[in-house]
């Protein structure tokens, strides 16, 4: 298969992992450094998210996408402050991972796998990939790797949240961001390549059969 890029290159997995983990690390650092002060943790987390947002905009990212990430961190900080429980800073993350499990499974079952939608969108193919049976099959099977990524996170986060372990949640968030995302990208890429025929031209070139023209009566 003539395809030079990996999924990590196409989807910029390293950047996504940094954006996901840095504000959470900042929250825990502020929390611990200032004697379990949720206010300090929230302020450090928002500062980290704001700094990332400015940097992303300067790098050419769309302001709307950047602001959504900043908004999510602000909401997480407000939840922790409002409830007075540091572990609630991670509540949105737990819910989002749980919702992702359901959404990704549904996308596979209805034959619109999210992995295909994401990669197809990045490559500017819209849904052309879906008319290639081999790519549809490969993306569907690769999407199960992403389901397992979210299952692992929920399985780790939920017991720590129930135990009120905010610091451990921060460590887990860091450990299950970069390393887990990298592993997920690598394994799902392997699954995709494994399920494509040897002569398939690659992700950039869906093999779409031309519609058969009906003979004129």
Question: Summary?
Answer:
This protein has 217 residues and is mainly alpha-helical. It contains nine helices and no strands.
Keywords:
217 residues; mainly alpha
Notes on the protein architecture:
InterPro entries: UCP010219. The chain crosses the membrane at residues 20-53, 65-82, 102-123, 144-164, 170-192. This is DUF3159 domain-containing protein. The structure is a single chain. By secondary structure, this protein is mostly helical. It has one domain (7-195). Helix content is 71%, strand content 0%. The chain has helices spanning 7-11, 13-33, 38-58, 63-83, 91-109, 114-122, 133-162, 166-175, 178-195. Helix 2 runs antiparallel to helix 9 (178-195), helix 3 packs antiparallel against helix 4 (63-83) and helix 7 (133-162) packs antiparallel against helix 9 (178-195).
As residue ranges, the low-confidence spans are none
What summary fits the major beta sheet?
none
Distance between the termini: 42 Å
- Helix proportion range: over 70%
Question: How much strand?
Answer: under 5%
In DSSP terms, counting alpha (H) and pi (I) runs of 4 or more, how many helices? 9
Shape: elongated
What is the chains' assembly state? single chain
Q: How confident overall, as mean pLDDT?
A: 88
SSE string, helices as H and strands as E: HHHHHHHHH
Organism: Actinoplanes sandaracinus
Keywords: Membrane, Transmembrane, Transmembrane helix
InterPro entries: UCP010219
Protein name: DUF3159 domain-containing protein
